[in-house]
């Protein structure tokens, strides 16, 4: 069978199991693998550890899996937009491992590169470093962080070819590319699918060797905006005093 599957449910068939570790790409609601998240929800798997920069919002993204209590533990950097997350955490119903954002990104990258651990100054002397090994380098204290290699990575790409080569767009390049390299199985949802050779090789962000399965986003696929902030632009002043010189 090729890498392209008819829908998200089929793309995850035989991959999901209770208690697994899942990388979920994206930043806020931008570039999140929403179709795959919905398929995970519908599958009913539970006791999941999910690694993601954030936890979505109450009615979108990983918030859907929190609502159905399928996530047991989150490894995240920012979770401030999800009231259900806060409720479960404060009630002792959800485990959380907070990471500085750069540290989280590097832990995932290290996992994909086969690096079991690394040392960083970020978090030294704070709650982040509690219980972790520290070491002196050149007179400075560093804390050891472990790389993260997941059972499954779910990612969203703007474009891909049938061989699994992926191109991300703008903010969606946060976390998706590194997560795609750091799991036993990577499943991608793509907005536009092309034939091999149609992507400029210099523009490929994730080589197809990392991607095992793919699903195409359907027509009318909705990309949510987490917080819409707009302002009126002032009308340009008229008159000879404001003409360019």
Summary, kept brief:
By secondary structure, the chain is α/β, with parallel strands linked by helices. It contains six helices and twelve strands.
Structure, described:
With 245 residues, this protein is of the alpha/beta class. It has six helices and twelve strands. The strands form two sheets. Strands 1, 2, 3, 4, 5, 9, 10, 11 and 12 form a nine-stranded mixed β-sheet that branches. Strand 3, helix 3 and strand 4 (71-76) form a beta-alpha-beta unit. The longest helix has 13 residues, at 101-113. The radius of gyration is 20 Å and the shape is globular. The protein starts with a strand and ends in a 29-residue tail after the last strand.
Q: What is the radius of gyration computed over CA atoms, rounded to a whole number of angstroms?
A: 20 Å
| Annotation field: number of helices | 6
Give the helix level as a range of percent. Answer: 10-25%
Q: What form results from the Cα inertia axes?
A: globular
**Low-confidence stretches at least 5 residues in length (pLDDT < 50)?**
none
């Amino acid at each position: 069978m090729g890498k392209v599957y008819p829908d998200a449910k089929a793309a995850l068939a035989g991959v999901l199991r209770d208690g697994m570790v899942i990388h979920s790409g994206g930043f806020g609601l931008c570039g999140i693998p929403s179709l795959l998240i919905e398929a995970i929800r519908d599958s009913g798997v539970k006791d999941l550890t999910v690694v993601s920069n954030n936890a979505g919002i109450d009615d979108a993204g990983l918030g859907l899996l929190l609502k159905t209590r399928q996530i047991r533990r989150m490894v995240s950097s920012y979770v401030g937009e999800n009231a259900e997350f806060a409720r479960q955490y404060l009630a002792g119903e959800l485990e959380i491992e907070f990471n500085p954002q750069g540290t989280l990104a590097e832990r995932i990258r290290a996992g994909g590169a086969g690096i079991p651990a690394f040392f960083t100054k970020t978090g030294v002397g704070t709650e982040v470093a509690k219980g972790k090994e520290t070491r002196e380098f050149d007179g400075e204290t560093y804390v050891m962080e472990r790389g993260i290699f997941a059972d499954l990575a779910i990612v969203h790409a703007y474009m891909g070819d049938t061989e699994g080569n992926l191109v991300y767009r703008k903010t969606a390049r946060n976390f998706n590319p590194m997560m795609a390299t750091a799991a036993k199985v990577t499943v991608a949802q793509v907005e536009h699918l092309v034939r091999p050779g149609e992507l400029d090789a210099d523009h490929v962000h994730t080589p197809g060797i990392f991607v095992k399965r793919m699903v195409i986003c359907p027509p009318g696929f909705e990309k949510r905006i987490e917080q819409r902030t707009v302002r009126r632009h002032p009308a340009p002043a008229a008159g000879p005093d404001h003409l360019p010189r």
